[in-house]
Specification:
56% of the residues lie in helices and 4% in strands. The chain folds into two domains: 1-49, no CATH class; 54-246, I/LWEQ domain, CATH 1.20.1410. It has helices at residues 54-70, 87-93, 95-119, 127-142, 144-153, 162-191, 202-226, 230-246, and strands at 7-11, 14-18.
Length: 262
């Protein structure tokens, strides 16, 4: 039995498997550090395996699709008993639902665009990245709640009320929390650049980490602003979505150094 392409490298203080695998060898088995094969039926430790990103991306796309679809449930059709002054005033009076839906849809959509962009740069995923990704999905799947809260408590004169300010602050808090997994992801990739596709490296991961920190600062400011001017906070959320939409592909691909450029 050969182990073509299988190499064992030092990774984060542990022995990690990387590289291509011989099709004849189960992906659940591994070589020992001394190069000897494991006995039949003995598998490598689960924490010492790297995985392709395909299953993680497919699962993540499903969560994003469900979360972004649920947002529209807060856009209601006015009932005839609720429109004493006609349909048009009732539709116009429902503007908080439209605004909340637009802001949340764009934000979740931009998170998905950035998620897609990140995983195009990742060659293999380890357990730490899987956990950071799950935390991100936890917060994405929770976004219909702050969306419904904002739509409900900004209605009428709610954007001037204490409840409206609290609703906007909760909204900002949830999306501020959703920026933290990006910091964890890029920090981990910076510490372990071997997980990245070439030519992306440690320097690139550090630049993306700084871009993630901008989101943390933006939404943290949004929490403060929402406590006094909820509509201004929503405008900040839309501005943040526009920034991350424009930069969803990340920084430019690093150029390889050539002899002429040295």
């Amino acid at each position: 039995m050969s182990a073509v392409g299988r190499t064992v490298t030092e990774y984060g203080g542990s022995r990690w498997l990387r590289g291509a695998y011989d099709p004849a060898i189960s992906t659940e088995s591994a070589a020992r550090p001394d190069g000897a094969a494991l006995p039949d039926g003995e598998d490598a430790e689960p924490d010492l395996r790297l995985s392709p990103t395909g299953r993680t991306e497919a699962f993540s796309d499903g969560v994003f699709a469900i979360a972004i679809t649920l947002l529209v449930l807060e856009v209601h059709v006015p009932q005839q008993t609720e429109i004493p002054h006609g349909l048009l005033p009732a539709l116009l009076g429902n503007w908080p639902s439209y605004l909340s839906y637009l802001a949340t849809f764009l934000t979740v959509g931009v998170i998905w665009l950035n998620h897609h962009g990140v995983f195009r740069k990742i060659r293999r995923i380890d357990r730490t990245l899987q956990w950071w990704n799950l935390i991100l999905l936890l917060l994405v799947s929770f976004t219909p709640f702050p969306n419904a809260l904002l739509a409900e408590f900004l209605a009428g004169e709610g954007f001037l009320s204490a409840d409206g300010r609290i609703a906007a602050a909760v909204y900002a808090l949830v999306f501020a929390a959703a920026t933290i997994p990006w910091v964890g992801i890029w920090h981990h990739l910076g510490a372990h650049p071997e997980l990245l596709e070439a030519p992306f490296d440690r320097r690139y991961a550090k630049r993306e980490l700084k871009r993630s920190l901008i989101g943390v600062a933006f939404y943290s400011c949004g929490i403060v602003v929402a406590g006094s001017v909820p509509l201004l906070a929503v405008a900040l959320f839309l501005l943040a979505a526009a920034f991350y939409a424009a930069t969803s592909g990340g920084y430019r691909r690093p150029r390889r150094r050539t002899r002429s450029s040295r």
